[in-house]
Specification:
The chain is α+β, with helices and mostly antiparallel strands. The protein folds into four domains: 60 residues, no CATH class; 65 residues; 123 residues, no CATH class; 65 residues, Orthogonal Bundle (Arc Repressor Mutant, subunit A), CATH 1.10.10. It has 19 helices and six strands. The strands form two sheets. The protein has a four-stranded mixed β-sheet. A two-stranded antiparallel ribbon has the order 1-4. Helix 3 runs antiparallel to helix 4, helix 4 packs across helix 6 and helix 16 packs across helix 18. The longest helix is centred in the middle third of the chain and has 38 residues. The protein is globular, with a radius of gyration of 27 Å. The protein starts with 16 loop residues before the first helix and ends in a 6-residue tail after the last helix. InterPro entries: RNA_pol_sigma_54 (IPR000394), RNA_pol_sigma_54_core-bd (IPR007046), RNA_pol_sigma_54_DNA-bd (IPR007634), RpoN_core-bd_sf (IPR038709). GO terms for molecular function: DNA binding; DNA-binding transcription activator activity; nucleotidyltransferase activity; sigma factor activity. Pfam families: Sigma54_AID, Sigma54_CBD, Sigma54_DBD. One of its GO terms (cellular component) is DNA-directed RNA polymerase complex. Sigma factors are initiation factors that promote the attachment of RNA polymerase to specific initiation sites and are then released.
Amino acid sequence: MEMNVVQRQTQGLAMTARMQAALRILQMSHLDLVAHLAEQALENPCLEVSLPEGLPPLPSGTAAARPDPDWDPVAALEGEKPSLYAHVGRQIALAFPQPAAQRVALAFVETLEPTGWLGASVETVARDVGVPVAVAEAVLGRLQQLEPAGLFARNLAECLKLQAADKGLLTWELSVILDNLGMLAEGRIEELADLCDGTPADVRAALVSIRGLDPKPGLAFSMPEQPVQPPDLRLVRGEEGWQVELNRSILPTLRVTAGPGSAGDAAARAWLSSAQSRARWLVRAVERRQATLLLTAAFLVRHQDAFIEAGPAALRPLSTEEAAAELGLHPSTISRAVAHRMIETPRGTLPLKAFFSRAFTPGSGADGPSQDALIALVGRIVAAEDAANPLSDAEIVRRAEAEGARLARRTVAKYRDMLGIPSSYDRRKRMPEPA
């Protein structure tokens, strides 16, 4: 076999250490940012950081957080249930020895909800981490093999399928039934039996197996209580309409100083010059973070003003890609800017992610209704029903169509499940018996 050495020139974007640090700063919550800046001030004599008053305790494990000297770490250990994050983290360290794959796996962990389900799509995680969707799918497949079965599922059907497969119960017939849980909830046993080439008795036997599965395996673990944090932004009505402003009461004040005197020591002067350069860069990075956050929030408010006035039913389809195209930013930058950010509005304090909504019909853009608007419509129709005569999913479809929204019956069942609304049969069964 002949071997040749060939030189090839390619163009690519390499992220410098400062670019990576700037992205981390953009994604930090205000508490994480304060802790990070306090740590930097301890290391850099040319950086002064004035912390805001009334600041909640800084995250533990940082140099800026001063723990109580009497604190006993052994006594503070969780005595009952282990943490979900710690549980999967230990398994990931063994299952993903390659750093690249482990980084993708940990990105999925960040989206885990208390139920153990994923709180973000595979496409979103792949975009945020900067890997192809196929790579993210492969990592997710391995994550779904972790214990207990059912973790990292994208929906209820997938969660139950993972557990059934783990127990050796997953047959083609059971898979069909799990794919049509809406029909099962509506009591359409005979139709479901036809779909899976079985009998009503087979479906009822499968139902017994399904009831033995855990729809929310993550609840077997403890989840850390999220502290109540003040909003990052405020929305106020000005003379020219809605205006977004930073909540400066939670932001630290930064100042670059000359540092201590260095007399005639050339090495000390060079080190101080480097420290000043790092301090100035950090101040600019924080300013860019605030500017990006304001720019993104202003875009969302401008495009979703009806949502602010009327609530979720008025949400228009809006994606991070649209925001990135109009603002001249990368979609991953938009995702980082809105992650864990809250804005105070007349409708209460909302996450910025609430201003995004997928189109109900892919490709319809802003002309079609958003998925969130249709979910809100289903909830409003059910809320207005006669409690003594609950509406069937078919009737909800007809009433939605009367308001200009075309929904399939299985879509209504899915939206009911997302809203925690039982079937009409269960809603009727919960009615108190007449005296």
